[in-house]
Design brief:
It is a single chain. By secondary structure, the chain is mainly β. The chain has four domains: 20-249, 7 Propeller (Methylamine Dehydrogenase, Chain H), CATH 2.130.10.10; 263-357, Sandwich (Immunoglobulin-like); 364-466, Immunoglobulin-like; 486-577, no CATH class. Helices cover 1% and strands 50% of the residues. It contains one helix and 50 strands. The strands form 13 sheets. Strands 23, 24, 26, 28, 30 and 31 form a six-stranded mixed beta sheet that branches. Strands 1, 22, 25, 27 and 29 form a five-stranded mixed beta sheet that branches. β47 (540-542) and β48 (545-546) form a beta hairpin. The two termini are 56 Å apart.
């Protein structure tokens, strides 16, 4: 039995406060909500403004505690733009409008009437604002740009002047809310600030405590609100996009936070009849006990070693579980590990599982085991080709020591013999059929290897040499232009087509094509049924360096591809193309 240990060291922090994250609430879908920014509570409604350049313009909306929209205010001000903050002053709202180079403040009645305005230029700005909150006597705003002015400022809305200041921990303060004599603000990490929520005593300006947002790395926290009982954060979902509400209880016992350092486990190749195990660590990064009540593994070849549930993990601690992979065939298996816990943000953590089962020793497989070439014309040395694959399904190296046909009409193209195939590797082999006379041809390609169970594997081949007085327009072969792996272009049209002198030595000229999807290809002129490339040139190198002879119609298409005399002295004619685009 093999054992593979997966271990990641983690530095855990601790806190000495007891806020509990009770739940997360999804907001409605749409651009307004995906760019939700400001938030304030009033009369059982959580009012939210949006920074979206279209849906967020000149309006703000309310949801209930379940995230369902219940109200909306349309601001009666035709040039009003989107918002980066929202406050409620007891009877009217204060709307933070985001302009191109600044933010301004507008007092808005519940019916949408604009009652007053304060321009940040008159406050010493202009400033970009991240939030606003009313403390009963004045309006607090957060300034996050310019950096030198980053702080919290109290504005007297009558005199329209700044009357108080609170410094912040960093340069990107966002949402603000007031809970009695305490002001809360949250920091964004746009310039490397810790994404934390800070509590400040309004009388002393002392910071009372702080705590991180649920995902303190790149959660883009925006609005804050206090509803008299619970504290609310508006931010991106953990490991997601858009916006979500996070509901906290400040009188709780803390919040567990699960952390599993892997999202996927790829087991090493495992021999049928054996198993491989991986140890997965479950961390508690929160400040309350994490309870894992069950773990589910799906996929019948994956299993979990015995665990006594529930797992109770203290803050700063971890537990290990062992996941096992026991394949029963040569197959690439996939499954999932689901961990169920009391983390309100991540109640279910999923880890994807995958692994390849292999057989013992070297094990040869041929796909397919027979090739039929059909009719191949003989008057001008017609040739057809087919491909098959040699696969090593074993856990040891497969040695190919010999390959041979009996009839000279069949040949193959492979690596130089002998050659090796590592476990699970595949080698494509091309078989050619060159009939010289009319009639049926049958043969077997015999492949010798070190597979003890199948030391002489076989591919049967059949074909028919055909000849007649072909009429004009008879199709000897065709060719399908392939997709270009460098681009998503689906323009497979052949723009240029010309003959070139014989390259393969069979006496038949080859064919040069140049396509709309950036290929120039030399095709075997003596093919039968389907032709195949002798060489390929790809002129799509990257998005700013690409071109084909049909691109933008810059040149006469056929004239843009020419067959030149031997230019480099190798005995063969050469191809010259002129391309449009950026080549």
């Amino acid at each position: 039995m093999k054992k593979f240990i997966l271990s990641i060291a983690l530095l855990l922090g601790s806190t000495n406060y007891s806020q509990t994250l009770l739940e997360t609430i999804d907001l409605p879908t749409g651009d307004f909500w995906n760019s939700a920014y400001g938030m304030v509570y009033d009369n059982s409604k959580y009012w939210i403004s949006s920074s979206h350049f279209q849906d967020g313009v000149g309006n703000f909306r309310a949801v209930d505690e379940t995230g369902v929209q219940v109200d909306q205010v349309i601001i009666n001000y035709p040039t009003m733009r989107a918002s980066q903050g929202l406050a409620f002053g007891g009877t009217d709202f204060w709307y933070v409008e985001r302009k191109t180079a600044r933010c301004d403040l507008f007092k808005v009645a519940p019916d949408g009437t604009v009652l007053d305005s304060i321009f940040t230029a008159s406050l010493g700005g202009p400033f970009y604002l991240g939030g606003a909150a009313w403390d009963g006597t004045g309006l607090w705003i957060s300034v996050y740009y310019p950096n030198d002015d980053a702080a919290l400022y109290k504005v007297d809305v009558t005199s329209k002047s700044i009357i108080d200041t609170i410094p912040t921990f960093g340069t990107q303060p966002a949402g603000i809310t007031i809970k009695g004599d305490t002001l809360f603000y949250v920091m964004d990490d746009f310039e490397g600030d810790d994404e934390k929520i800070y509590a400040v005593d309004l009388s002393t300006k002392d910071t009372l405590f702080s705590f991180p947002v649920p995902d303190p790395s790149g959660q883009a926290p925006k609005g804050l609100a206090w509803d008299g009982t619970y504290f609310w954060l508006l931010a991106e979902p953990v490991s997601g996009s858009g916006r979500q509400l996070f509901k906290y209880d400040f009188s709780g016992g803390g919040t567990p936070q699960i952390f599993v350092p892997v999202t996927s486990i790829i087991f090493p190749n495992t021999t049928v009849g054996d198993d491989t195990s991986v140890v997965v660590q479950i961390f508690n990064n929160g400040n309350a006990e994490l309870i894992v009540d069950s773990i589910n593994v799906n996929g019948n070849v994956f299993s979990l070693d015995s665990v006594s549930f529930p797992l109770q993990i203290l803050p700063g601690s971890s537990e290990n579980i062992t996941v096992r992979f026991t394949p029963n065939d040569y197959f690439y298996y996939q499954g999932n590990l689901n961990i169920y816990c009391n983390d309100p943000v991540d109640p279910v953590v999923q880890v994807s599982l995958s692994g390849q089962g292999v057989f013992s020793g070297p094990a040869i497989t041929l796909v397919p085991t027979s090739l039929n070439f059909g009719n191949v014309w003989i008057g001008e040395d017609g040739v057809a080709y087919r491909n098959f694959k040699i696969i090593n399904k074993g856990d040891q190296s497969l040695a190919i020591t010999g390959m041979h046909f009996n009839l000279p009409a069949f040949t193959f193209d492979s690596p130089s013999i002998p050659f090796q195939l590592a476990s699970t590797d595949t080698q494509q082999v091309t078989v050619y059929f060159y009939p010289t006379e009319e009639g049926s041809y049958n043969d077997t390609l015999k492949i010798s290897s070190n597979d003890p169970g199948n030391p002489l594997a076989k591919v049967t081949v059949t074909g028919n040499g055909a000849f007649s007085a072909y009429n004009s327009g008879y199709t000897f072969w065709n060719y399908q232009v392939p997709p270009n792996p460098n681009t998503s272009s689906t323009e497979y049209r052949v723009e240029g087509l010309k003959p070139i002198n014989d390259i393969t030595g069979d006496g038949i000229n080859e064919v040069i094509i140049s396509t709309d999807n950036y290929f120039t290809i030399c095709l075997d002129g003596s093919a039968s049924g389907s032709s195949f490339p002798i060489w390929t040139l790809n002129t799509y190198f990257n998005n700013s360096n690409a071109g084909s002879i049909g691109q933008s119609w810059d040149y006469g298409v056929q004239d843009a591809m020419q067959i030149a005399d031997d230019l480099n002295g190798d005995g063969f004619n050469d191809v010259v193309i002129g391309t449009g685009g950026s080549n």
